[in-house]
Write a structure and sequence with these properties.
494 residues, alpha+beta, FAD/NAD(P)-binding domain, Flavocytochrome C3, Chain A, domain 1, 2 domains, eight-stranded mixed beta sheet, five-stranded antiparallel beta sheet, 14 helices, 20 strands, elongated
Amino acid sequence: MNDCSRRQALSLMGASAATLTLTGTAMANPAKATWDRTCEVLVVGSGYAGLCAAIEARNAGADTVLIEKMMFLGGNSALCGGGLAAPGSDLQKAAGVKDSAEQLYQDMLKSGGGLTHKALARVIADNALPTYEWVRDYVGVKFDRLGFHGGHSVPRSAAYKKGNGAKLVKPLVEKAKALGVKIEQGTRLVEIFVEDGRVVGVELQTGYRFPKEKSGKRVRCQVTKGLVLAGGGFSQNVALRSLHDPRLGAELESTNQPGATGDALLAAKRIGAMDIQMDWIQLGPWTSPDEKGFGVAPKIVESVVGFGFMVDPATGRRFVNETGNRKVRSDAIVATGHPAVLAVSTNNVSHVPEEALKKGLENGVVKTFDTPEALADFHKIPKDVFMKTLAEWNECIAQKKDPTFKAKIFDDTKPNEGKFYSIRLWPRVHYTMGGLAITPKAEVIGIDMKPIKGLYAAGEICGGVHGMVRLGTVSIADCLIFGRIAGKEAAAQN
């Protein structure tokens, strides 16, 4: 067994042992006690996955309640760039890009490093285009920009020229409310109750004010059909993430909203749900130390991969494939021990959303220079070496190939010359690839390897979908697709 496999096995064994210990307590709590309230489908979390689950459950006729522990809706979905991986979209066809579900599937397997659960990846690949069309036609959200993200074989990310993930969250919320979904903010999931192997209800903390653990009051809610967990990942739970990966301590910031602490995941584990691949936690290679949180840098950086180049300021040399997947780039930056510098000429930013570039210039994340020499001086990069690196990169552009690092060179990439932009980059904890084990029907699998009746999960709370590396904008497809599946399945239960 290699080191990677051994770590995963030990992690799973430890998690299972802990779950077995805790389960006895949780399940012994008498679920037959008087309920304070009742609903047919309860959805936990108000990001893409939760909102889609609530919409589909309600469309199926179920009395549906969606709870969100924070006082704002959308979770991390409202903060993300908002792109959606969609093979065969109208945007690709307009740009002359040939793509297919099979090609997306193969890209997912390649980036996943052999750890992607194929059945789950196939669900995403086969449903990505229909889901894109559902968002466009049913939800009423129009994408107007085609983007490329590192690790993809072709540009396939449907995105916006203006706006971010909130642009999709808002109409999803409006659609859910119009259908009659009851949405409750400041309501936290505390415990899940199981009776005869089936989820029958939950304990909630209403009037909760994060992070005040004793705020609000406890109520019991009976769930007669299904419970959908869509509470997101645990990037903001430093103790949990560093338990699974000791390198990810408090010194590393996260792009996530502060409530991404894994409450729903831990509640599921306490009733015997299985977790998988918890030690695979993704860093975002496109965040800047010159701004907080998610920021605007990611949207700018991902729009210039294959156009600009990245250097180690200590050496002035390139050190990584700029169009590689997120793990490749993050690991390479961290290995240098200091922020990298992305350099791109102003004639190569036509793909950057104007709004993002404007904000980046205003908040100082993006620096502008009249010459590449001035850029090198500002960042204290060895000037002679930097100019040689620039010349080599421009030769790659001329030849349409990168013999050193194999970066993709796009047909519309121009020589980097004249005025320049720069962005400093240092990774942040971004996405937890591990989480609850699910079936292709979004059923949560217990430690007995069987689905837990009445329990479903979708989105970042799940594991195995992406393997070692999550490709950019595939998570949104994941959330939308499995959220819809979970909602339909939960509503169909008797």
